[in-house]
Amino acid sequence: MTTLTGRYSTAEKRWSGVGPYYAMFPSSFAEQIILKYTSVGDRVLDPFAGRGTSIYSAAINQRIGIGIEINPVGWVYSKAKLNPAGKSSVQNRLEEIGRNAFRYRRATAEMPPFFRHCYTEDVLSFLLTCRSWLNWRQSKTDWTLMSLLLVHLHGKRTDSFSNQMRQAKSMSPPYAIRWWKENNQQPPQIDPVKFMQKKLDWRYKRGCPVTSNSEVYLGNSIVRLGHIAKKLSAASENVKLLFTSPPYCGVTDYHYDQWLRLWMLGGEPSPSAPQDSLRGKFIDREKYKKLLLDVFRNASRTLADDAIVYVRTDRRKLTLEITKEVLQEVFPHLRMRSYTRLSPEKTQTDLFANLPAERGETDVVLYPR
Ligand SMILES: C[S@@+](CC[C@H](N)C(=O)[O-])C[C@H]1O[C@@H](n2cnc3c(N)ncnc32)[C@H](O)[C@@H]1O
Q1: Which residues form the DNA methylase N-4/N-6 domain (predicted)?
Q2: 219-251 pLDDT, tens per residue?
Q3: How many domains, in total, are found in the chain?
Q4: Distance 193 CA to ligand 1 centre (A)
Q5: Is 121 found in the same domain as 33?
């Protein structure tokens, strides 16, 4: 029985929506795969965890999820879903920040024009306080509050902190300012603490999800997987399902498209090309192949003899060809099958694909012979 289909009648379902992220797995799909290929207590590994959909599905179904994500936005969403703080501590922290937001009022004037078109002064001083006070890497209360703030940082003008914007992708400042001016759109006049309190009421209405002992690491899988493989081997443990979706070649810039949420986590107040090439757009064929080879090779060291490898990727030629090449090279002993989905329903690439005709994903699955 899956828990993530249907209405919001459980905590697991309510928390599964944290948070908006490009190229995410539909939650019910991730859960179906976990239930089909694993049993209670099995380990599931996702080295490109994104917002942690696979790991969360594993954790609420008594499997052990192990995720790695290089983008702090995805990481903080995953962390909050796997291990959320109780409502009262998040509420107390929210109120404490609200009481102190006046301290950051002067700082709002120093922000680039984009911010003053996007948020009212009240909201911006509140956000600046959260940005500076929340210890989201280490404190459970703070990663929970931060992740829920990020969910609402931008989106529909009537249901977010921001002036009208997309929810999954941050717009470029010149484009957004021009659009707001042309359409005479002003930032919404909201009390940020009351706004968040309502959002907390909705999220916690059915309590917190019950999750098993799972973990998501912030960092580069090429490095992290080595440590994980050593740890598992020392404990004679292994992974039953490698379930992941790598970045798609040439499709999205994982840094630029999230620049506003990354700013909230301490980044620059404008979209900028990341220093680290792994965080940007994957366009170079050879570099892309090397990333996949390094990650899948290292991941293979954690797998049980009868493990299944399930990879969802872009169905377009370049990404698919490279992915299959790499999987064949790393797992020559497994039997490969692929299934292409051209369904009219929303796909992971909807936001970024250039042509509607190219929409769709391919699932490449490798089974023991
Ligand atoms: C297609 S998305 C995965 C989405 C995920 N399935 C979900 O449901 O949210 C690919 C992810 O891989 C991450 N990534 C890219 N290179 C990485 C690396 N070297 N180590 C860890 N994560 C990486 C990107 O930041 C991005 O979040």
Answers
A1: 18-72
A2: 999 999 999 999 999 999 999 999 999 998 877
A3: 2
A4: 32
A5: no
